[in-house]
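Same chain as my last thread, 193 residues:
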Amino acid sequence: MSNRPISDSEAVIRRFLKGDEEAFTQLVRQWEGKVYNLALRFLGNREDAQDVAQETFLSVFRAVEELRDPSRFPAWLYRIALNHCRAHWRASAPEVALEGAEAGADGERRHGPIDGLLNMGTQNSIEVRDMIRKALTALSPEHRTAIILKEYLGLTLEEVAQVMDCPLSTAKSRVYHGLRGVHRTLVRLGARN
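reply #2:
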């Protein structure tokens, strides 16, 4: 047995697996904001993000017994949410939201390369947000997902790889090439530093 401390989510999941339905309510309360944030960033529509959050937790409720390692719950949860986001994305081609949910996965405000663009003093921030939104929607779903997970939700590259179920090198590459794609599109759209 490992000496690794058990996270709050892990303890709640174990209680839920033993039949404690109140534990599931706790999980939803603990994670619904993070799932909503991910869906809002990916889909850009508050109603769709709420639908995805509800669908995600319904899927979790139905499939929680498939979770082999409760310590991997966050990655498993985000993967389910991303699958629902992709289904909604295919059904309609929305734009990615840049306002609204401002915190990372742990509730802390993140400052990454895209935040620097949002704070540019030479252009109207609404105009820059619109340019970034267009740049993100021009990316492949894999690159867009990697950037949302890393830059907006504040996940580490290791966590991005876990959520996207890919090697660390692939996660790094997706973030790097995604940010390069955003930069190229912003230059083409006339963003100034």
